[in-house]
């Protein structure tokens, strides 16, 4: 169940009222259009073709962006927590990354200092599309993004510090390895958000078992967006009891 009706079902007024993102109307419209394409592609997924060509191959030219209401939630969480160092596991064409960049920009405006969004993408063509999406978005979106191309199990090994938020929007088998690479760099109170935590619970069994084991230091909440969205707070290993 989604908290919000999908944009197509909303009146213009409701969308503007509910969207927390501070950005020019042109950029908000651009984001709406990217979500529309992504949703249309997902609605048209041909399961037979996926089986025939393989999941990764089939998804190579698809956005598979995080749903728009979830992007708004991630943006709002970044603002609420003052997140300035953010990691995104799974970037694709870079839609959710735009929200992360806008949120970090807003935090820098409010509180000063610096920040960056570390994005990760394995497919070279997707990485190239993400860069052009960010350039088209304008508003300095690209300036804060450090896109790490290649397998995140390699690209997240170095160059992380004081991470405030990790977005797990990645193929399920990669989620726990990504978390374990970033975890040593979490500040206490860092937030981890994982998509599809209800619909893909069986595929996230290793991640959820790890995060729900109290000794690993996470406070977990399943937020009832469509297909579930897990929001966890890192209290520190053996901490927070
Ligand atoms: C669900 S999509 C991300 C969507 C993106 N967060 C958005 O909202 O626009 C997951 C992405 O992870 C990428 N991916 C898969 N395995 C990866 C790996 N080992 N390292 C880095 N990226 C990977 C896929 O190519 C895919 O584009």
From TrEMBL:
It holds the Pfam family Methyltransf_24. It comes from the Eukaryota. InterPro entries: SAM-dependent_MTases_sf (IPR029063). PANTHER family: PUTATIVE (AFU_ORTHOLOGUE AFUA_6G01830)-RELATED (PTHR43167:SF1). This is O-methyltransferase.
């Amino acid at each position: 169940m989604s908290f919000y009706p999908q944009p197509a079902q909303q009146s213009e007024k409701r969308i503007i009222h509910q969207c927390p993102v501070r950005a020019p109307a042109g950029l908000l419209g651009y984001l709406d259009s990217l979500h529309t394409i992504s949703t249309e592609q997902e609605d048209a997924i041909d399961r037979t073709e996926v089986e025939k060509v393989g999941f990764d191959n089939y998804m190579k030219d698809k956005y598979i962006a995080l749903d728009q209401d979830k992007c708004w939630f991630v943006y709002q969480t970044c603002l609420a927590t003052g997140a300035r160092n953010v990691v995104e596991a799974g970037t694709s064409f870079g839609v959710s990354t735009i929200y992360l960049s806008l949120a970090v920009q807003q935090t820098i405006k409010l509180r000063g200092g610096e920040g960056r969004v570390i994005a990760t993408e394995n497919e070279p063509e997707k990485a190239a599309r993400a860069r052009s999406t960010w350039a088209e978005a304008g508003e300095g979106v690209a300036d804060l993004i450090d896109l790490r191309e290649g397998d995140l199990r390699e690209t997240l090994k170095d160059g992380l510090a004081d991470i405030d938020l990790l977005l797990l929007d990645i193929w399920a088998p990669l989620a726990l390895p990504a978390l374990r690479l970033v975890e040593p760099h979490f500040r206490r109170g860092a937030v981890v958000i994982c998509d599809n935590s209800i619909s893909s619970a069986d595929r996230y069994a290793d991640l959820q078992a790890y995060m729900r084991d109290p000794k690993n230091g996470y406070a977990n909440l399943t937020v009832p967006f469509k297909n579930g969205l897990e929001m966890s707070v890192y209290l520190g290993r053996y901490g927070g009891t």
